[in-house]
Structure formats: C-alpha cells, structure tokens
Amino acid sequence: MRRAEDSSGHPAGIPQRLSLVQQTLEILRRDIARGRWTNRLPGERLLCQTLRISRPTLRQALRILQAEGRIESVRGVGHRIVSAGPGTKRKGPADLIVRLLLPDFNNQTLAERDGWIDELKTLLFQSNARLHLHQGSHFLSKDPTRAVRHLVDQNPGNAWILCRCPPAVQSWFASRAVPCLVVGHSEDAIPLPRVFIDEAAAGVDAVNRLARLGHRRIGLIHRPTSDRSHPLVSGFNSAIADSEALSGRVVQVGGNYQDLCRSIGQIRQREPSMTAILIGDARTYATVSTFLIREGSAVPGDISLVSLRHEPFLDSLVPRPSSYAFEPARLGRLIHAAVLGLIDGSPLPAEGLTMGPTYRPGDSIGPRKG
User: Fold this and answer.
1) 285-294 tens-digit pLDDT
2) Could you give the angle at which helices 117-126 and 328-344 cross, rounded to 10 degrees?
3) Residue 220: φ, ψ to 5°
C-alpha cells in the first residue's frame, strides 16, 4: 500500500489521508469477508505493521467498520468481528491449519525452538490459524516417502512448513500439489519457495573482517548437516577466493568431544601459521576455544576465533566471543507473511525471502601479530 506521510509519520494532507483510510477500509472489509480473521481482529500494532499505516489512519477505518456493524470494540479483548458483511460467509477457526515438519526438533538450538516458532505460532493465532508440529527420526531415513505420504494423508492442512528436512522429503512435496514452504537451505533442483537465513553472508563478512585485521590464513571448522554445511562453506570459499592474499582450510568435524579435540590438534600441527578460525556453531566454538586455551594458545593473542552462530551462553565465556546472530522474532514474521501468501496464492520471489545474520562484536578477535 502506498502512502504519503509527513515527518511525524502521519499521512500528509487531507486528500491523501482520506484516500489511505478508504484503502485500509477496503482491505479490512475484504479480509474479514474471506475469513482471514474469524473471531477478532489482530492488535492495532500488528495491523499497522502489516498494512504499513499509522495508528490514526487505522482507527478511522475501525470506527467506520464499527458504524457498519462489522466489528465491535470489547474492553480487554480488542475488536471482535460481528458480521462478515452482506452476502458473505466467513470461515470457521479450524479452517486454516498450518503444519510444521521439523524431523529432529530436539536437536535445534534454544533460539530456534523458543524463538521463531513461538513468534510464528502467536502470529498465526492472531490470524486465526493453528500451527501443528510434526517430528520424528523416520523422516530422516534413506527413503522417507512412505512416512511422508502417510503423514500428509492423515493430517490435512492449508500449508506445510518444511524445516531441516532432507532432499527426499522436499522432493516428495515438490512433486505433489501440496502448498509448502522450506525454512532453511533447499536444493537448487527442487522448486519450492523458501525462507532462509543467509549464513553464507556471515562467512563472507567474517573473512573480510579478519582480513582487514591482517589475517591471511583462515580456517573454518563446522559440523556438516543436511542444510547448514553448504551455505557456510560456499560463503567462506567465495571470500577466500576473492583475494589472492588469503588462503583457507575447511575442516568438517563430527563425532564426540574426543574426536573434535583430536581434529583441532591435527589442524594446529599441520597449519601452525593459521591465525584465525571460523566455527560453524556455538557449542563447537565453546569446545574449540577451551581446548586451545588449555593447550596454551591465547585468544585472541595467538589465534582469533569467530562463532558463525550465536547462543546466549556464549555471552558468559571469557573472552567474550565475536559471533553472528539472527533475530528469531523477525524470522517468525517472515515465515508468517510467506505462509499467508502461500495460502492466498501469492507466490514468493524466485530467490525466496532471506534475512542476514547480525554481527555481535566480542573480544575473541584481534589484529594479527608478527
């Protein structure tokens, strides 16, 4: 919706203000009539953000809807929908169901489990839609086709969200007329809309920051998974390749604590001149940093470290890690907007919706010495 506003954030001039109120009114009438909201309207703050209008504009439209008998203001509740309008039939609250398939739910970070999913659930509830979570390791098997078919057949919904699902699951949804959205990395050959965090951008930014501090030999340590290894590695490699002065080494680690420590020791022995290491997740960062300190390496005096994913416990470490974080609530809002568009038949851009991580400066990186 386009608008003209003055410096105070309010629409500039009476004609524009009336036009904007009328546009807002038409959108609210249409969405009530088609059943987007069934019992009550979302809160004023959310409506203003969604429609990109000021609160005075919204309140004028709401007063007109009240006068028309479509809504009523209820203290402590908000604006309750009384009528969808003449000749219309509204959907019931159970008509919109969104299903989230997250096979390995317990392996997600706290920010993922308690951040964007909670935000998404709240926003869908305000839009009179319900979010149902489905999980299970059988969706990660070599051939999950039967399990996925049974899941979808037994659980009808208006849209599906696929988070950290393997390519076999994504391919099954892509081959069916099932509206779905991928959260995270998806295979280029699988034509599904997606919302994702641009982790490759974090790798590029971290390499460039370290290069500006004089580091020339930079490593990347990460635990490969189905949807995170590719963007991290591609971003890191592209940043290294862009400069003839830089050299990089990618090390994939797995297994238990002892295996990780053994890999770190081998890296340091083979690459004694490596002066900076990027680490793909927060828990691995904690192990790497404490191992190096135990072995007598000063951070950042001898080696600089960066965590490409942030978790709150990192703020308790000394030195405080430099890291990259994403805002879970913002990701939840992106997914919410994409899902509603999917249900309404509004296609996402071909490249999907993306958000970049934010750099959180810490004390674990410093200039290269010597």
Assistant:
1) 999 999 998 8
2) 40
3) -130, 125
